[in-house]
User: Fold this.
Amino acid sequence: MRRIVIGVLVGAVTMLGVTLLDRFADTSVPVLSTLATLPDPAAAEARRLADLPPPPAEAGICLNWTRADAADTVAVPCAQPHRFEQAGSVQVTDQATLPDDRTWRQLVGERCTPMVTAYLGDKFDQDGKFRVGALKPSQARWAEGERSMRCGLQTNTKSGSFLPITGKVADQDQSKVEAAGTCLAIDGRTVGDPVPCTGPHAVETVGVVDLAEQFTDGKYPAVDDQDKFLQARCGEIAAQYAGSADAIAQKKLTVYWDNVAEQSWQVGSHKVNCNLAALLPDRSGFAPVTGSAKGPVTVAGTPAPPTGPGAPPSPGAPADGSTTPTGPVDDAPPAGTTAEPPVPIPTQVLPLPGTGGGGGNT
Assistant:
């Protein structure tokens, strides 16, 4: 759970894995355009795709695909990289007509979230890196009478691109952390997808800390206790990463860290990131940084303009080989669902050398 200076609703994002992304702040994120028909591949390839059986629908099956249209979706061992882990399927026979995107989102929130939570044995981290997703029937399959919706788990970038999952979700720490050396794009005053550190970015991750190694009694550590430990630990990690604490100060960068929420801790998410970033003079957002903190950097003193929609998200997997994604969704999430907020400005930062004081609230 990230500590923030402005009120931001933090919660799990429920979305359709094949079609839907909600709004983030004031930026509408694009979704997949409607897929009409498959392109005209060689006849043999077309026949091969047409003959692919639908993947099993039961819980615990992991799905992957390689084609842009997801026409080659297959079940794979969950130990291999995949894009979707099924928790089961539900019927939507109460829907008289094919639901629109807004209704699909609401159905996912109402019917898939409880199923996913039960599938994980009530160990689902709502603030973690995994999201509740669903695979819905295509319009053609709906017309044929198909009324099942597959519920499951996925992980995405802010713009909606699917990220690979390796292993069963229940067997891993669900902490939403980035690997050291990862830079996140500057998007207005907040952050976007991972980008090369050589270009403008908002945040550079310098390390991952497992709080369970410090707080060994199993009890949830209060945020103040987390901060007391992380202030020193993240300072050490950042100084080692950038060369020294003086180097960080000379580059006008700030060390900050994340915190773990109690709900996340109780389900086994114990890891947080230590980060480097530059704040705007009024601390209202991130200033664009160009270059890795390991070398020369350039810090802009004004906020970057919000980015456009960006690259289209990766395609969703068809539940039956013929699922058709819908067009862009520009309206807000319906009641019962939440949109993932942009990464907020940190409240806990290390003071510059010589300024005194502790982390404190910005």
In short: Residues 137 and 225 are 48 Å apart (CA to CA).
